């Protein structure tokens, strides 16, 4: 995984890596002096949350592909900030989309406000992902950065798409992946994340029943 992350940071090798290491263009965490009224929209794997906040740039993000069962059309490959802004304008709302932030980066920023030594944001829930603070000189995917550091959204849930996990993936992992909305994608995430664990257990139980190890070899009707 470390090698895949290293390759993902380099412009010449990024396409070869299953971990894309997306620069977030966030070059510093909050310091508590930010001011203004904000409406936060959180589209997660399980819940959709809306929160109005008052605080006493970052306006471009392209969705490469949906994961974790999302399948809304007309979004992949488009700037989600622009799509959201168009929808807000159509509703006549005086709201401007000022930032698109991955949840790991939001987690990192929130924790860093309380503990300045915090350098990693980790999500382990419906899905799994990690963001961390990287030396900007090591990030070839973005240019013109004057700050010494930048937050990287690793999207390490995609690890394994180049065959790195083949020796660890079981027959149950492969069956569940084949039946998913996006076969062959997000393989590491499918092995460890909450949204997939129940289905993995179901495949294991069905196998044990078929081998006459559980329930006297009889599958229930449902």
TrEMBL record:
<keyword id="KW-0418">Kinase</keyword>
<dbReference type="InterPro" id="IPR043129">
    <property type="entry name" value="ATPase_NBD"/>
</dbReference>
<comment type="pathway">
    <text>Carbohydrate metabolism; hexose metabolism.</text>
</comment>
<dbReference type="GO" id="GO:0005739">
    <property type="term" value="C:mitochondrion"/>
</dbReference>
<dbReference type="Pfam" id="PF03727">
    <property type="entry name" value="Hexokinase_2"/>
</dbReference>
<dbReference type="Pfam" id="PF00349">
    <property type="entry name" value="Hexokinase_1"/>
</dbReference>
<dbReference type="GO" id="GO:0001678">
    <property type="term" value="P:intracellular glucose homeostasis"/>
</dbReference>
<keyword id="KW-0547">Nucleotide-binding</keyword>
<feature type="domain" description="Hexokinase N-terminal">
    <location>
        <begin position="57"/>
        <end position="112"/>
    </location>
</feature>
<dbReference type="InterPro" id="IPR022672">
    <property type="entry name" value="Hexokinase_N"/>
</dbReference>
<keyword id="KW-0808">Transferase</keyword>
<dbReference type="GO" id="GO:0004340">
    <property type="term" value="F:glucokinase activity"/>
</dbReference>
<protein>
    <recommendedName>
        <fullName>Phosphotransferase</fullName>
        <ecNumber>2.7.1.-</ecNumber>
    </recommendedName>
</protein>
<dbReference type="GO" id="GO:0005536">
    <property type="term" value="F:D-glucose binding"/>
</dbReference>
<keyword id="KW-0067">ATP-binding</keyword>
<feature type="domain" description="Hexokinase C-terminal">
    <location>
        <begin position="120"/>
        <end position="218"/>
    </location>
</feature>
<comment type="pathway">
    <text>Carbohydrate degradation; glycolysis; D-glyceraldehyde 3-phosphate and glycerone phosphate from D-glucose: step 1/4.</text>
</comment>
<dbReference type="InterPro" id="IPR022673">
    <property type="entry name" value="Hexokinase_C"/>
</dbReference>
<keyword id="KW-0324">Glycolysis</keyword>
<comment type="similarity">
    <text>Belongs to the hexokinase family.</text>
</comment>
<dbReference type="GO" id="GO:0006006">
    <property type="term" value="P:glucose metabolic process"/>
</dbReference>
<dbReference type="GO" id="GO:0006096">
    <property type="term" value="P:glycolytic process"/>
</dbReference>
<dbReference type="InterPro" id="IPR001312">
    <property type="entry name" value="Hexokinase"/>
</dbReference>
<dbReference type="GO" id="GO:0005524">
    <property type="term" value="F:ATP binding"/>
</dbReference>
<dbReference type="GO" id="GO:0008865">
    <property type="term" value="F:fructokinase activity"/>
</dbReference>
<dbReference type="GO" id="GO:0005829">
    <property type="term" value="C:cytosol"/>
</dbReference>
């Amino acid at each position: 995984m470390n090698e895949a992350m290293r390759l993902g940071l380099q412009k010449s090798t990024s396409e070869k890596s299953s971990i894309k290491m997306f620069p977030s263009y966030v070059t510093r965490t909050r310091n508590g002096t930010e001011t203004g009224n904000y409406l936060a929209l959180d589209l997660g794997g399980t819940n959709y949350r809306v929160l109005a906040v008052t605080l006493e740039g970052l306006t471009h993000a392209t969705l490469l592909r949906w994961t974790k069962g999302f399948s809304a059309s007309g979004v992949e490959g488009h700037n989600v900030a622009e799509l959201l802004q168009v929808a807000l304008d159509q509703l006549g709302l005086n709201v401007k989309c000022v930032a698109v932030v991955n949840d790991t980066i939001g987690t990192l920023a929130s924790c860093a406000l309380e503990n300045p030594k915090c350098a990693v944001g980790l999500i382990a829930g419906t899905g799994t992902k990690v963001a961390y603070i990287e030396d900007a000189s090591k990030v070839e995917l973005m240019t013109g950065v004057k700050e010494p550091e930048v937050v990287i959204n690793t999207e390490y849930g995609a690890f394994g798409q180049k065959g790195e996990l083949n020796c660890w993936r079981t027959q149950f992992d492969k069956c569940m992946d084949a039946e998913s909305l996006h076969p062959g994608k997000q393989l590491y995430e499918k092995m460890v994340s909450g949204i997939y664990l129940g289905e993995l257990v179901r495949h294991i139980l069905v196998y044990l029943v078929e081998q006459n190890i559980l329930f006297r070899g009889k599958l229930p009707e449902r």
